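---------- Forwarded message ----------

FYI, see the CcoQ/FixQ family Cbb3-type cytochrome c oxidase assembly chaperone record below. Original note from H. follows.
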Amino acid sequence: MDINTLRTIVTVVSFALFIGILVWTWSRRRRAHFDEAAMLPFLEKDGVETAGERK
C-alpha cells in the first residue's frame, strides 16, 4: 500500500463521515432536541448568574 492509496482511503472516509454528520444534523427526528438546545442560552433560572452579570 503506497501513500496515495492511504490518502484516498482517508479522503473517502472523511467525506463519508461529513455526509453522515450532515444527515444526522438535518434529520427530522433530532429537530426537537436541537430546537430545545438552541434555546438554552435564553433560559433564565433563579439564582444562576448570567455572563457579565455579578451580584
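H. also flagged this: The chain has two helices and no strands.
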